[in-house]
Structures are given as C-alpha cells and as structure tokens.
Design goal:
Layout (H helix, E strand, L loop, with lengths): L1 E9 L3 H10 L5 E4 L8 H4 L4 E2 L8 H11 L6 H20 L6 E2 L2 E2 L1 E2 L9 E2 L5 H14 L4 E4 L2 E8 H5 L8 E8 L5 E11 L20 H9 L3 E2 L4 E8 L12 H4 L3 E3 L19 H15 L4 E4 L5 H7 L1 H9 L9 E10 L2 E3 L11 E3 L4 E2 L12 H16 L27 H18 L6 H24 L4 H22 L17 H4 L4 E2 L4
Parallel strand pairs: 1-2, 1-11, 2-8, 11-18, 17-19
Antiparallel strand pairs: 3-7, 4-5, 6-7, 9-10, 10-11, 12-17, 12-20, 13-16, 14-15, 15-16
Helix pairs in contact: 1-5, 1-12, 3-4, 4-12, 7-15, 13-14, 13-15, 14-15
This protein binds succinic acid.
The site of succinic acid has 9 residues, from loops.
Length: 531
C-alpha cells in the first residue's frame, strides 16, 4: 500500500510538530508517530526552554555558557545562530498557543546547571506537556496535516537502496512503515522526509526517557548511509528519583536552580568539592560527582534537599514533582529526596548541515535525533527544546526549496518484502536481547568507562546483532523487533564512537585516558556505514 505526500514527518515532539505546522503552509504533510501523538520526550520535559529574555542577560552570555558546558567542541557558528534566533522562535511558540509561566508583566525565568543567568522559560514544572498540548491542538486543526498514530518506521527508502549500489548522491524517497494496529507494512513516499524521532535513552537500563526513546531515527539513517557523529556523549541526568516503583522519574535541575542541595546519606553536602558552581555545576560534573560519592561510600543513592526553602513556594513552583513524589510517600518540603543519575539526552546523532539536511539528499533530521554541533561534549540544560524549534524552522526554510524535486515514479518504489517470514512464537528472544543490550550498556558504557569494558560491550552487542539479523528476516516484523534492532544499532554506534575518542571530555570519561587532549581530540567523532 502506497501513501504519497509532500512531507513525511517521523516523530511528534516539538521538532516534528513545529516543522509540520510550518511545512503544511506549502504542501501535504503525513505525520507518523509510534504511539499516541503526545507520547514524545518533549511531553516529559520539565525544566524548560533557554533563551535570552531578561535585560540582565545577553546573547554572548548564553553562547559562553553553552560553550563552557560543551567542553571545547561546540560549533561556535551554530551556537551563535541558535542563541540569536531563540527569542523569535519562542514568540512563534507563544503564537501557536504555548503558555509559559509569567511573573507580573514578564515571563518567569528560572535557572539550571551551567547557566550564569536566569534564562529558562517554563510552564510550572511541566513545560513539555504545555508545549505538546498547544502544538498538538494546532496540528489537529490543520487540514493539510494527516496524522498516523501507532505507526512505526522500519527503514528509509533511498535511491541507493532501490538501485542496490552506492550512488554518488543518494536521495531519500520516504519510508516503509509498520501500522501497529493492523500489522500491515505501508510505503510512505514523499519529496521531503524529516526525522524527528528523538533520542535513545532506552539503550540504557536506567533512563528517565519515555519508552519511545529507542534511537529509531539514528539507526535508520545510519543503515541508509547517513553520517552519524559524537555518539559517545550520552548525558546522564544527575537526579532521577530513587524508588522501586518510580521508573526513573526526573527531578528537574530547576529544583537545584531554586536552591536544592545534594547531600550524602549522613547529610554532608558534597558538590563544593567538585566545582565552584557547586550544585549548579554542568551536568556531566554533577553526575560524575554523584557516581563517585555513591561508589566511595557504598551508597545506593544520594539526597536532594530543598527542605530549607519555603514549602508553599516549593509546592507552587514544582506542583507536578511535589505531587508525584508524594504519591511515592515522599514529601519534598519535609524530607530530602533519594536520587540517582540516569540516561537522559544524547548529544550526538545524525549529522546535519546548517539547514538540518543530512548527507542523504531530501532527508532532514532535527531535535535529539540530530547532531548539529550545538551541544559539543555536554548539552547545557534546556538548550534542547530551543535547538529543536530553531532547526525545525531551518529545515522548513530549506525543505520547501526541494518541493520541485521530481518524485521517483511510484512504480519504481518497491513495497516491503517480508519474504518467507512467519509468525514467531519466541518473543522471549526479543525480551532477553533487549535486556542484555541495556544491561551491558549500563554496566560497561556508563558514566565512567574503560577501554576494556567498551570492548567487552562491543563483543556482546555484535553477537546480539547477528541473532537479530537472522530473526529479523525469518519472522513477521513487530514493533518490539524493530525497536530492538534500533537500540542495538545505536548501542554499537555509542561504543564505536567511545572507542575512537582516546581522551576524556565532557560526558565521555575513560579511566584509561583520564585527561582532555586538545591537541588530538578537540573535534567530533564521525561514523558512517561501509557498504
Ligand atoms: C530538567 O528539568 O532537569 C531537564 C532539563 C533538560 O534536560 O534540559
């Protein structure tokens, strides 16, 4: 079954939705998403969106903070562009109906780690939910956008794939997509394909990402021949709730921005030993400090203490966090919260240029799936929603120039071939491998790494990959199998990039190369599939 549109958008977070809304002014948009439209990482973002909105702040200060956090490898031109276009892009969000929290006549600005000024616009502590609410309403009202919920992309369709050979310039023509409701595989063709599939936190055993974060876009783009960069820089959020039933519930960095202090079990604050900004040091430093404290003292967690602040203000500023913790029997106004780090944000991804185009023509990538050069070796808090929204506009401005591309004749685009696949009665193979990848990544490719552990992880991942490839073509494809194949590809890419980088920088810390090496490694790590 073939479905044709001008723009195929894969993913329904801030990146996909804002692109779709802009693109719909010029053509028909097919928007596919693997669950309900609101189920994206954006929806769970608590902190907010960083931008220069205060008289006391400057573009230079925001750029400087971004680059300090990025540990020397942010692309300065990208940082400047994103920071300077930020205020207008945020005004666009407001126009689409997003309501940020105000304070008197102005927006209430909060602080997070690594920011020298208050510059984070937020909607209480559910910023992402508010952004998603407004954008989804706008998308639903747009007659030019056709939504396909419960549809998961399997693989991209490219000219090279159809021709079964390497081409000097490869072009994306759409994607094969599994309709999860019916089990049918549909062929979506489009002049422009946009990956807005988010990140890959599910590659790790512990993550505050939603279940949809399985790195689908990165894995598909890599398989199709696009370059991928800086995959070793997985950001671990320092503070997720440590509770057996909480499934890594995020405690926003804004809680520290409003005065919370990290303490050991015995109550001793420890961040002053690690950084002059103490609890508001960049995230890589805080996460490593917590990991170190837990290892030295043999503790399962550390504690985040805001009990010294006014309880009414805490309840008012963090209604969602307060209420959720209360449901787990923890009153944050009266007791410190037990917290641990968990995988949170992937700074690397599919390499894109200044227009968000990948090195496959007519294929764009924006948001967490993409590597633009903004984040360097460590993302500054709340810069990601900003990056996604700014690059959605960049992609849109460029993608409309591709609308006069001659489409490939529909008959030349093959439908999905499931060969002799049969129904599998061995789903245990999928769940076993799923667990093994995530556990290996957590144990061997976590906050502190060594070359030996990285090599061990790679051996295991490669074995699992062989098994998946056999399984993939023998059995009828399912959403779980697609995701397993994708997390395993992304795991391999993270390890390969981590092995390339023979130094420690930002989020990548290898005990065999504990120093930063600006002579050889002040650069990105790249990887491209060899066909
Ligand atoms: C948080 O609220 O701590 C997360 C914000 C971010 O990761 O940018």
């Amino acid at each position: 079954m073939k479905l044709e549109s001008d723009f195929l958008v894969i993913g329904s977070g801030i990146a996909g939705l804002t692109f779709a809304l802009r693109a719909a002014r010029h053509g028909r948009v097919a928007l596919i998403t693997k669950r309900e439209i609101t189920e994206s990482a954006t929806n769970y973002a608590q902190g907010g969106i960083a931008s220069v909105f205060s008289q006391e702040d400057t573009f230079d200060a925001h750029c400087e903070d971004t680059m300090v956090a990025g540990a020397g490898i942010c692309h300065e031109d990208v940082v400047k562009m994103v920071v300077e276009e930020g205020p207008q892009i945020i005004r666009d969000l407001i126009e689409w109906g997003v309501q940020f929290t105000t304070s008197g006549e102005t927006y209430d600005l909060t602080r997070e780690g690594g920011h020298s000024k208050r510059r984070i616009l937020h909607a209480d502590d559910i910023t992402g939910r508010e952004i998603e609410r407004a954008l989804v309403a706008a998308v639903r009202a747009d007659a030019n956008i056709e939504m396909y919920e419960h549809h998961i992309a399997i693989d991209l369709i490219t000219e090279a794939k159809i021709a079964r050979k390497r081409l000097k310039t490869n072009r994306c023509l759409g994607a094969h997509v599994l309709d999860k409701n019916t089990g049918a595989v549909k062929t979506f063709t489009a002049k422009v394909t946009l990956l807005a599939t988010g990140g890959a936190g599910k590659v790790y055993l512990y993550t505050c990402n939603p279940d949809v974060a399985t790195g689908d876009g990165i894995a598909m783009a890599y398989r199709a021949g696009a370059s991928v960069a800086n995959m070793e820089f997985m950001q671990f959020h320092p503070t997720t709730l440590y509770h057996p039933n909480a499934k890594s519930f995020l405690i926003s960095e804004a809680v520290r921005g409003e005065g919370a202090i990290l303490r050991r079990r015995d109550g001793t604050p420890f961040m002053e030993r690690y950084h002059h900004l103490k609890d508001l040091a960049p995230r890589d430093i805080v996460a490593r400090a917590i990991d170190n404290e837990m290892k030295i003292h043999g503790d399962d967690c550390v504690y985040l203490d805001i009990t010294h602040e006014n309880p009414d203000s805490v309840r008012e500023r963090f209604p969602n966090i307060y209420q959720t913790c209360l449901e787990y029997g923890l009153d944050m106004t009266k007791q410190p919260l037990p917290v641990v780090p968990a995988a949170h944000y992937l700074c690397g991804g599919v390499m894109v240029d200044e227009h968000a185009e990948t090195d496959i023509a007519n294929l764009y990538a924006i948001g967490e799936v993409a590597f633009t050069g903004l984040h360097g070796a460590n993302r500054l808090a709340s810069n990601s929603l900003l990056e996604a929204a700014v690059y959605a506009n960049k992609a849109y401005e460029h993608a409309i120039t591709r609308l006069d591309t001659t489409p490939a004749p529909a008959e030349d685009i093959p439908d999905w071939d499931s060969g002799t696949a049969t129904n599998s009665d061995e789903m245990v193979v999928v769940s076993q491998n799923w667990d093994e990848v995530r556990r290996s990544m957590w144990n061997y490719v976590g906050i502190v790494r060594s070359t030996k552990r990285l090599e061990r992880a790679l051996r295991r991942i490669r074995l699992i990959q062989e098994e998946i490839e056999d399984y993939y073509w023998d059995f009828i494809i399912t959403s779980d199998l697609i995701e397993l194949r994708n997390i395993t590809t992304v795991a391999e890419l993270i390890v390969l990039c981590a092995l390339q980088r023979k130094e420690s920088r930002g989020l990548h810390y290898n005990i065999d190369f504990p120093e930063r090496d600006d002579t050889h490694w002040k650069k990105d790590s790249y990887i491209k599939k060899q066909f």
